[in-house]
Amino acid sequence: MLDPMVEIEEKPSAAPPRRNGKRPRSAGRGPDSLGGILAKIILLGITDAVAAFVLFQLALSAEWMIFGISLLTTLVINWIYLRRGGLPAKYLAPGIIFLLVFQVFVMIFSTYIAFTNYGDGHNSTKADAIASIQLSASERVPDSPQFPTSVLEKGGSYFLLVTTPEGEARIGSADKPLETVTPSATGPTGAATGVEGYTTLDFATLLAHQQEITALTVPISENPEEGALKTADGSTSYVYTPKLKYDASTDTFTDTATGTTYADNGRGSFVAEDGSALNTGWKVNVGLDNFQRAFTDPNLQGPLLQVIAWTFAFAILSVATTFALGLFLAITFNRADLKGQKIYRILMILPYAFPAFLSGLVWSGLLNPEFGFINNALLGGADIPWLTDPVLAKISVLMVNLWLGYPYMFLVCTGALQSLPEEVDEAARMDGASVWKIFTAIKLPLLLVSLAPLLISSFAFNFNNFNVIYMLTGGGPRFDGTTFDIGSTDILITMVYKIAFGTGTGRDYGLASALAILIFIIVAVVSALSFKKTKALEELN
Amino acid sequence: MSTATAPHAPVLENLPAPAKANKPTLGQWFRSKGWRHLVAIAATAFSVFPLLYVLSAALNPTGTMAGASTMFTEFGWGNFEALFANQERPFGRWFVNTLVIGLVTSAATVFLGALAAYAFSRMRFSGRRFGLLTLLLLQMFPQLLTVVAIFLLLNFIGDIIPALGLGSQLGLIMVYLGGALGVNTYLMYGFFNTVPMSLDESARIDGASHVQVFFRIIMPLVTPILAVVGLLAFIGISSEFVIASVVLTDPESQTLAVGLYSYVAQQRSENWGVFAAGAVIAAVPVMTLFLFLQRYITSGLTAGGVKG
How far apart are CA B204 and CA B201, in angstroms? Predict the structure, then answer.
């Protein structure tokens, strides 16, 4: 039941269809049917409409480089489909566009990010960072006047309507500095409470949106140094000025209270002489800093080397164990006259059909040291730290991956065994070779030749087998002596994920991308080497 | 053990029927077949036991991990009711989301892959070999390696077209389609080659256009590989966690993988029963589909693998 397709598969590859080499077939063909032309017009029309919308949006946000690339892409698509001939491009273009954006481009983009300090506190431009620092670190100006205030709402954003001590009504929002207005309603004390076109919030609404309103900072003027108005209760507001003053001429921030100056350190942060940095920084290129940090920072170096070693061990051992068990079972069942074979097979391959992300979670329940089924029921209340001891956790991960992976190897080995030529087996038997000898000297080498590519891709898959690790142990138990959330069963890809998106420690996209590049390189080298090896293997036969 | 079976092996394999005529002794039977049954039972138990455990935990009304330390002693539907009653974690929505994202992506994957495979198999153009090799090379680098870049890219796209940015399922589907060529094209390419060229040619002579040849002649003949690729894509995507967890932030839009993980991420043992119930519901459709189409899948796997 397995081999027919394998065999069909082999034939044409020996004689690939080659008689078509003369010219693209489309060149001299007759006109398309009306339906075909209509379908083409409609599909191209939709694509162009979407493209036009995207281009318009890009132009609005002044992203000119991306605008140019998108425009070029749109033109190329139209050229491909409107010209005569060039048939292969018409069939390849849709898939390739997605491939280029979400596979090739993101790889290049990762490389770029790896050379920046992109991450929490470094995710925008320097100008944004300066503005943000000036607004965030502010304090109330002592003895400054109180402004009677109403909170107004218009189009989903909130405004503060204040009355100055001089009796002038002014209105402003987070991104619009205060400006003078004529109030449409005033309260009993003469303070303005409403403006034409805005809704004044009542007390209940104020309470419901308390957080947004207390966070609202309304600049007094375009100059951030003049400070901003803030309200704590929605009825009075005070002037706050930046605690840190920015001096554009020296490009430094000065703490108005302590007098400490923070200067641009060239690495995307304002740093004081004592080494303390302001929280908000900006994105800059840092060259090989991330790579250097990964291998020299004592906080990172040791764990990283352990993680790399374990990643290799995990991938190799996973392939070895699943292949060994799968092959053993395939040989055991490679007999037509075994009763109940079908049932065994179906039950055995069930783990392969079970969604992979669930397997890790389910096993984490089975192996849970405190409440898990294995400790509590099977081992009668034993206290074996399956997932919390560094060594046992590694063994558990390998065992779960064996459970997940051996059915696949079993299926694949069965297929390969059945497609081995029967005559070789018989001839060897005639010559008096033992079963063991036949297996090691004839069958295994033949199997390895046909299965080598599969074993390599299995290695590559396990090298990045995120789901098993993350769902089963989450990478734990954690290493001592590092502030990063990395543990003894973490492999490189889970480490990348945790550094980029983990909770607790801040996000560091730059470092995560640098580690991803490291995986790229390892995978590339390993597959290049191994494909060379398999070629050699094939030539031998 | 292998040496022990050696003298019997040829006889039994070539003549399965007469084995009944002269009944082998128990010892002979064990050495030739009995041990195989023992191995089979052990392997089956290893495979099935965790699955039975989930089922029992799902049906156990205690609902915590500690309560699930006996199998099939208590029964109740409480976990399933709790699963669907939870408003903060809308399991029903996750199920539908997974189904929609999986179906749309796998259908599109099959279509894009088939288009490319048709071009590679039926046309000769410069860069064809290079294209095939590049695809083979690119599939060594799974998309999850670039998850950071994908996140930032979608973040940027979302500023311009919110419907495709972070949090959008459409955006996620587009990302998945980036991996649509890769393995699939290669697998399909091999199968497309098995359809004789003479079929296309006779259709061409009868006046069919290349599009008609593709849809009317080739597609019906390659249905098995389309089913395999579609199914593998569906299974892969319904289990995909890394990218989905980063892109889909709102519980309403999440998939089963992201949602069910969130159930047990913090309090693994308290929510265990409800999680198990969710796992059972999530797994049953995929497993049923898999077992029904098992024959196709395995042949597809071996075909793709053995060809390399």
Answer: 5
